Amino acid sequence: MEEKTVGFAVCGSFCTHARAMEALEEVARRFAHVIPIVSQTVADTDTRFGAAHDLMREMMRICDHRVLTSIVEAEPIGPKKMLDLLIIAPCTGNTLGKLAGGIADTSVTMAAKAHLRNQRPLLIAPSTNDGLAGSAANLGSLMARRNIYFVPFGQDDPVGKPTSLVADFSLVADAAQAALAGQQLQPMLVCP
Fold first, then answer.
1. Any bridge partners for residue 154, and if so which?
2. What is the arithmetic mean of pLDDT over 49-59?
3. Of 21, 54, 86, 126, which is least packed with CB atoms within 10 Å of its CB?
4. Strands 85-91 vs 2-10: parallel, antiparallel or unpaired
5. Contacts of 72 (CB under 8 A, 6+ apart)
6. The model's pTM
């Protein structure tokens, strides 16, 4: 187990939460300290994929740490240099746009902004139905920035949802290891 502190932030791509929890389990096996973070939407929204309370309880069990759910709780990540790496898995198109535009109005975007000020790696696992449409420019903008890395991703349903992109969640822990070494896990484009 590597003696690192990793933040694991979850956004509202609810259909990928089960895969994100599997990735979180693997990250928790590899790194000594994992701090869970969820957007307010995730903290407050029950869906057909599960209850918000159950998801947060599962994250707390895996990480043995209270889940950060607010901007106020996420803001100290920067000044206190709390994290060696921040993972956002899944990262919605909405969050991609906010990160690209420098907007920090959720717990997850605040965590990212606070973390990036320390010039430490941010790992993004995209999951968005408009990745090859409205979110494509934001994705490209983030790819060109220092200290931002991606979990390899691809089209999850090219026929049924031709603009949809999703990360291969089985590669989150490997991509985290690469990002900590200052490298982008390759190939970046895969068939998830």
1. 166
2. 94
3. 54
4. parallel
5. none
6. 0.96
Q: In this predicted structure, what is the pLDDT of residue 114?
A: 97
| Alpha-carbon span 123 to 152, nearest angstrom | 10
Using H for helix, E for strand and C for coil, what is the string for the chain?
CEEEEEEEEECCCHHHHHHHHHHHHHHHHHEEEEEEEECHHHHHCCECCECHHHHHHHHHHHHCCCCECCHHHHHHHCCCCCCCEEEEEEECHHHHHHHHHCCCCCHHHHHHHHHHCCCCCEEEEEEECCCCCCCHHHHHHHHCCCCEEECCEEECCCCCCCCCEEECHHHHHHHHHHHHCCCCCCCCECCC
What lies within 8 Å, CB to CB, of 3 at 6+ separation is 32
Of the pLDDT bands very low, low, confident and very high (cuts 50, 70, 90), residue 191 is confident
Q: Does domain 2-180 have CATH number 3.40.50.1950?
A: yes
For residue range 19-44, list pLDDT tens digits in order.
999 999 999 999 999 999 999 999 89
Rounded mean pLDDT, 136-143 = 97
Taking the CA atoms of the chain, what radius of gyration do you get in angstroms?
15
Residue range 149-187, pLDDT digits in tens: 999 999 999 999 999 999 999 999 999 999 999 999 999
